[in-house]
Design a protein that fits this description.
The chain has about 180 residues and is an alpha/beta fold. The protein is about 40% helix and about 10% strand. The chain is elongated. Belongs to the RLP family.
Length: about 180
């Protein structure tokens, strides 16, 4: 049976199996695959660029094989770490920080635009801007609902009153216990 026919497969761990040969191109058909671990084998050849089309792939480990060539930098491959590829000294690309030799084709050559794009995505300013925007949207979304939904507004204020009362009661009990301990 060929692995490429297992279209609903979510996770495949074939690490530490002494596998040889190349990574099958039929893996591109595993459209539901989320995790693929082929580390600690004896795989050779290149990483099939078609694997970058697997949009659900969140884990891809090929560490400690004999792979060579360029690591695809598009699709999900832009999210993987260098540790996922370590132990393959002949791999090159943006992820591992090794530039490819001049013999690579024009379509596989890492451009400065790709490097700049990666730097922009990893920029703390962009990250914190998205966090601030999401918090603002969430806050104003709740305020808008409370402004237009009378029942929700009443329930919120009743819940807040109950919370304040419970905290006040708890503090009163705690204060009484502390007074008793101090008097003894």
């Amino acid at each position: 049976m060929e692995m490429g026919y297992l279209r609903t497969l979510h996770s495949l761990n074939l690490s530490h199996n002494n596998l040889t040969g190349s990574i099958p191109e039929s893996f591109q058909n595993l459209m539901s695959l989320e995790s693929l671990d082929l580390s600690f084998n004896h795989l050779s050849s290149e990483i099939p660029p078609q694997l970058a089309q697997l949009n659900t792939l969140s884990t891809f480990r090929v560490a400690y094989n004999n792979l060579s060539g360029i690591i695809p930098s598009n699709g999900q491959f832009s999210t993987f770490n260098a540790s996922d590829f370590e132990g393959n000294p002949n791999l090159c690309g943006l992820v591992v920080g090794r530039s490819c030799s001049n013999g690579t084709s024009e379509t596989h050559r890492i451009t400065n635009d790709e490097v700049d794009k990666q730097r922009v995505i990893d920029s703390p300013v962009i990250y914190y801007s998205f966090i601030a925007a999401s918090h603002a949207i969430g806050f104003w979304g709740v305020i808008a609902v409370l402004a237009f939904k009378y029942n929700w507004r009443v329930k919120l204020f009743l819940a807040a009153d109950d919370l304040i009362y419970a905290c006040g009661t708890g503090i009163s009990i705690l204060a009484g216990c502390i007074r008793k301990c101090i008097r003894k």
